[in-house]
Task: inverse folding
C-alpha cells in the first residue's frame, strides 16, 4: 500500500512536469477529464497516502489504494490506464487508483504542519496536540 515515503518518490519522479501544460488526457477514470485539459501544473504535493496535482483553483487527489501504481514516460503493457496526462515533454500514467477533485485552495483540505513527511511539519501543530490528548 503506497504511503508516506512511496508518495514522496512519486512527487520526485514527476517534477519535470511542474509548470507544464497538460495537452491530452485519457483513461478509464470516471472523473471529468476535460477539467484537466490545457491546465498548467502549479505544484505536486503529498499528504499521507495522497498524491496531489495542484492546478489553478483545482487539485486532483490520487490515492493509490492497495496496489496502485504509476509510470513516467512509459506504459505498463496489458494494463488499463486509469488516467494518462500527456505533456509536450512526456506523460504520467496512473493505474489502479482512486481519483477525486478538490476545488479551491488546497490549504483548506490539509494541515501540512501535521504531516511528518512535509517540510512544514511541526511536532507542536494543533492537529498533533489534539491527537495526543484524546
Result:
Amino acid at each position: 500500500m503506497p504511503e508516506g515515503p512511496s508518495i514522496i518518490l512519486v512527487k520526485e519522479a514527476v517534477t519535470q512536469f511542474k509548470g507544464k501544460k497538460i495537452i491530452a488526457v485519457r483513461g478509464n477514470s470516471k472523473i471529468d477529464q476535460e477539467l484537466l485539459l490545457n491546465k498548467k501544473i502549479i505544484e505536486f504535493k503529498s499528504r499521507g497516502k495522497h498524491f496531489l496535482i495542484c492546478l489553478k483553483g483545482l487539485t486532483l487527489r490520487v490515492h493509490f489504494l492497495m496496489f496502485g501504481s504509476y509510470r513516467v514516460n512509459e506504459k505498463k503493457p496489458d494494463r488499463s490506464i486509469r488516467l494518462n496526462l500527456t505533456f509536450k515533454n512526456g506523460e504520467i500514467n496512473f493505474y489502479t487508483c482512486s481519483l477525486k477533485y478538490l476545488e479551491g485552495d488546497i490549504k483548506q483540505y490539509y494541515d501540512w504542519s501535521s504531516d511528518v513527511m512535509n517540510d512544514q511539519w511541526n511536532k507542536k501543530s494543533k492537529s498533533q496536540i489534539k491527537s495526543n490528548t484524546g
